[in-house]
Prior knowledge:
The chain is of the alpha/beta class.
Amino acid sequence: MLSYYKDKTILITGGTGNLGALIVKALSQVSCKIIVLDKEKDAWAPLPGQLAEMSMQCADIRDGGIWAKVLKEVDIIFHCAAQTSTYVANENLVADLAINVQPLVALIETCQKHNWKPDIIFSGTVTEAGLTTQLPVNEHVKDQPVTVYDINKLTAEKYVQYYSRQMGRRSVILRLANLYGPGGGRTSRSADRGILNMMVRKALKGEALSIYGDGDFLRDYIYMDDVVNAFLMAGAKIDQVNGNYYVLGTGEGHSIKKMVHMVAEEVKNKRGSEVEVGHVPAPENLSPIESRNFVADSLSFKEKTGWYAEVNLREGINRTIDYFLEEK
């Protein structure tokens, strides 16, 4: 899979974030050229075993002029940069549009103007489907977004599909379920993202874990390394997946309550101390998207690429705990 990227120029937006930085790390083992685009001024040190030539472009993707500066010789774009909070999006509709839609439009327009044809691998979210009633969820389920964030992510997806279907380029969209596990960059700044990681951190500090309501809603928790592999596979198999979106998950549903108790159990196993778990009323401003059950059906993507999720929830929780203990 990695050999596909040899001698190619690869742009990774949001490249110092958790997902983007892990993609950078994986591709650094290949003789290629990597351009990391991020508004954060993180300095890059050489990575162990690094073969890639790497450069950092510190810029905000809302600056439409940045694309003409970085895209000229790019073969592949992993577009991970985004505003990821449902609550922030609902508070400021225009600002969310400005970061989750307009930069992608400017990117595509720049490619059209200069006749550049980089492949685009775009990071989407399974919540674009809305309050799904049938499980598992695949690409045949009708999208009915209920938040501003999901409306804008879905709009961005339509531009990505326009790029391939009407402009004759190549692109693919991967909609991610509940992502967790050690990331390669800074911790997510959105309080409503990375809930499992947050629970692990709190448990390791000896803090009590709280569950809203009964905690019976189902989620599909997918480990970070499996997602990175999916992105790399999508880029390497772009002809097979071109123009489509795919729902990415493990295919196993776990209630929020089960996930929290599993975190408490595994932290106790490693630290020897009890972790208190309690139930609290849900806040009044809780987004409606939280009141859903979700399990992914990723069979279509598996058939096209051979990818499947390798890490089950208990193993992933243990890996995450070990990582945070080592980090501390």
